[in-house]
Amino acid sequence: MRILSKRQLKELVLYSPQHVARLEKAGLFPKRVQLGPNRVGWVEAEVLEWLDERLAKRDTPPDTPE
After folding, report:
1. How many CB atoms lie within 10 A of CB 40?
2. What is the pLDDT along the chain (66 residues), one digit of tens a residue?
3. pTM of the predicted model, to two decimals?
């Protein structure tokens, strides 16, 4: 298992830390792991799965009204 730092996470998802925090709070992004009093990280596999879901959605046509 690999844990991503804030810097590594930002390189992967290209979101600001504030936006990541908003997504986490809304349950729309993998939750951070508290590693110490001043250190957090994210499970790489969870973040990659989240990215895969986004990639899959881009290939799905939007719902069209009948």
Report:
1. 15
2. 999 999 999 999 999 999 999 999 999 999 999 999 999 999 999 999 999 999 998 877 766 565
3. 0.84
